[in-house]
Amino acid sequence: MLQGFKDFLFRGNIVDLAVAVVIGTAFTALVTAFTKAFIEPILNALGGAETGGLGFYLRDGNQATYIDFAQVINAIITFLITAAVVYFVFVLPSKKLMERLARGQEEEPEGPSEDILLLREIRDALGGGTGQRSPGLDPTL
Fold first, then answer.
1. Cα–Cα distance between 40 and 74 in angstroms, integer?
2. Burial of 43 from C-beta contacts in 10 A (0-12 / 13-18 / 19+)
3. Which Gene3D superfamilies match (predicted)?
4. What pTM was estimated for this model as a whole?
């Protein structure tokens, strides 16, 4: 049981996952700061001066009853920006790399290529067809 846990820890995937979580958290904080500093004020300006932003009070004068649409839109924009960056920076390039690696494995020839076969015929012809190789020719051909 402990051996399985040790294998899991030292497999390498957990380190990659930890790095991804830390980078994702830092990036999310950056995008959240951007949307709060730039997007939310623009959205609040659309609400007008009387409402205090893009939202309304359920009970006038009670701050706890304010429904803030700007904050919800902000969260949606933060999510979309974060998801787009993760997709275009991490997912798409790794998908292309995996496809390229898969293609590279499929294209390996099973036997000698036509060039090698032709060189073998030339070698055999120069050797007189007796199977003896001319000096200086590579014996692996």
1. 6
2. buried
3. Large-conductance mechanosensitive channel, MscL, domain 1 (1.10.1200.120)
4. 0.50
Based on the structure, what is the number of domains in the chain?
A: 1
What CA–CA distance (Å, rounded) separates 35 from 48? Answer: 19
Under 8 Å between Cβ of 47 and 70: yes
Contact 34, 49 (CB under 8 A): no
Residue pLDDT, tens place only, 65-111: 888 888 888 888 888 888 888 888 877 888 888 888 888 776 655 77
pLDDT for position 135: 55
Sign, CA dihedral 132-134-135-137, equals: negative
32 pLDDT band, cuts 50/70/90, is confident
Domain membership of residue 132 (yes or no) is no
What is the spatial distance between Cα 79 and Cα 35, in angstroms, rounded to a whole number?
Answer: 10
Residue 90: give the domain boundaries: 2-126
